[in-house]
Amino acid sequence: MAQENTVPENEGLPEMEQYIDEDALAALTVERNEFRDKFMRALADAENARKRADRDRREAEQYGSTRLARDLLPVYDNLNRALNAIPDESRAASAALIEGVELTLRELSKVMDKHGMKAITPVAGDPFDPQLHQAMFEAPVPGTKAGQIIQVMTEGFLLHDRLLRPAQVGVSSTPG
After folding, report:
1. Rounded to two decimals, what is the model's pTM?
2. CA 8 from chain center: how many Å?
3. Would the pLDDT of 49 be above 90?
4. Do residues 93 and 68 make contact, with C-beta atoms less than 8 angstroms apart?
5. pLDDT of residue 175
6. Is the pLDDT of residue 65 over 70?
7. Looking at the predicted structure, is the pLDDT value of residue 147 above 80?
8. Dist CA 171 CA 129 (whole Å)
9. What average pLDDT does this structure show over 46-56?
10. Helix (H, G, I), strand (E, B) or coil at 114
11. Which residues fall within 8 angstroms of residue 144, CB to CB, at 6 or more apart?
12. Rounded mean pLDDT of 57-80?
């Protein structure tokens, strides 16, 4: 009869605890934590990049036409100057021409408004605001206070909430 193997199944094999090296386990735990930290930082960087790209895209949509908008402002100014330069006695004879220039100016204004361009139209007597106005000259004018607008040379414009061009104004220097 053949002799049976009487060695117990786990006998001769070291216990699992003997295979666990505490230093190696600690090193693996540290390495895992470092990888987790790197992963979380990479995830945060990716989220920040996504947000930055989204913000840049929105700004490009809103303000990408800034150069074109600035280039259109002299056209707007010249159409206004043309209308203001027509003497009253010539208005009847040039009615069709005047109407054409007015229609062109209105259409240009509609297009500018459609694309977020808004006029800054100060009037005489308004307070000077250096955020929106550019003082072209200062003069003492009786009946005004220092810092009041006394004359408007050109309108200013905003593109959404950014200043494209300040309104060019004359400001009173009369002491209060």
Report:
1. 0.69
2. 78
3. yes
4. no
5. 75
6. yes
7. yes
8. 10
9. 96
10. helix
11. 125, 150, 172, 174
12. 92
Q: d(Cα 105, Cα 77) in Å, to the nearest integer?
A: 9
Q: Tokens for 161, please give them.
A: 């909430």
Distance CA 150, CA 165 (A): 19
In whole angstroms, what is the distance from residue 144 CA to residue 5 CA? 117
Q: Which residue has the tokens 């607008």?
A: 149
Residue 104 near residue 79, CB atoms below 8 Å: yes
Residue 158, judged by CB atoms within 10 A of its CB (0-12, 13-18, 19+), counts as: middle
Q: What percent of the chain has pLDDT over 70?
A: 89
- Structure tokens, 38: 């790197």
Across 4-8, 15-19, 137-141, the highest mean pLDDT is recorded for 137-141
Q: What's the whole-number mean pLDDT along residues 98-116?
A: 95
Q: Look at strands 156-159 and 117-120 and give their pairing.
A: antiparallel
45: its two tokens: 């960087």
Contact yes or no for 161/147 (Cβ under 8 A): no
Amino acid at the residue 77: D
Helix (H, G, I), strand (E, B) or coil at 24: helix
Q: CA-CA distance, 107 to 113, in Å (whole number)?
A: 10
- CA trace torsion 73, 79, 82, 84 (10° rounding): -80
Q: Which residues contact 172 (CB under 8 A, 6 or more apart)?
A: 138, 139, 140, 141, 144, 145, 146, 147, 148, 149, 150
From residue 156, alpha-carbon distances to 38, 91, 93, 120, 166 in Å are: 50, 28, 32, 5, 4
